[in-house]
Write a structure and sequence with these properties.
Two copies of one chain form a homodimer. Chain A is mainly α. The first copy, chain A, folds into two domains: 62 residues, Arc Repressor Mutant, subunit A (Orthogonal Bundle), CATH 1.10.10; 49 residues, no CATH class. The radius of gyration of chain A is 18 Å and the shape is elongated. Chain A is 55% helix and 9% strand. Chain A binds a DNA duplex through helix 1 and helix 3.
DNA sequence: CATTTTCTGCTACATTTGTGGCAGATGCGC
DNA sequence: GCGCATCTGCCACAAATGTAGCAGAAAATG
């Protein structure tokens, strides 16, 4: 009896850097207009209205968000869960840079000299606290 | 007194998918020619000689490998350690997709339903043992 | 040596990503 | 209803990435 969930459906499309920034706002609000996102990313970026618009457009094409016309304004909603997107991104990284093996990544984490003792302890704690639920 | 290694020098340049494939061969062999890499990636990819050549060229420009002329043939050598490249890639992922916080990634790992119990246990064990045993 | 093989240097070209402009349609304040 | 603010749809353009061809130089081969 296997306890792995095995492979579910197709991976959500990979998101680019800029697209992640937009998705953060989309997930946070649940439902956004171009302007909402623009507002949220002010300070983080220096994007023009058009830039956000284009990015949302591309996210629609990638199937990451859905668009619904409300009056003359588009309202966007997440079409993939953040968790799914994160999983896909993580698996893509593991595939390209860590032998396709999660274990290699974890090993790197704990062996990486840039990981502070404190962070390492945090990881252990998180694992113990969160990993126990059957 | 801080125990963090804090921020060392500048991150190695980000590598693209294709570039990671090439770098795998470069790290494995320690010293390669275009043809060596081409040989190694046969089966994995269907690249032309020129493709590998271009990729190595770009890796030189990115400072990821060094080139040395031996006769009329170029010999390439890693200029960044695999560990450093992995670290940079991992940090980039955390930055874009996991709130910039390693803890968020680890939390995702243990909470992700796609992570099998066995992998979860491995993770815990590796953390406890500091990754000392294979 | 004359050929054949193999390299290199340069160029090319499609796609994706980052960034944004312009013009026409639509909605809001007065 | 009119004008001003907004939105949208479509296009643009540079940099990065994926993928490779061509021509000339260098080396190997008979």
């Amino acid at each position: 009896m296997r306890d792995e969930p095995a492979c579910s459906g197709p991976e959500p499309a990979q998101l680019s850097d800029a697209e992640w920034t937009v998705m953060d706002a989309v997930w946070k609000r649940g439902e956004v207009t171009v302007r909402d996102v623009l507002t949220d990313v002010q300070g983080e970026t220096d994007w023009a209205y058009s830039t956000v618009k284009t990015l949302l457009q591309r996210l629609v094409e990638k199937g990451a968000v859905s668009r619904e016309k409300r009056g003359n304004t588009s309202v966007f909603r997440p079409a993939v869960e953040q968790k799914a997107a994160r999983g896909a991104a993580l698996r893509a990284l593991v595939r390209r840079a860590f032998d396709g093996t999660l274990g290699t990544l974890v090993h790197h984490l704990v062996a990486d000299e840039r990981l502070s003792r404190r962070e390492r302890e945090d990881l252990e704690r998180i694992l113990r606290d969160e990993g126990l639920d059957p």
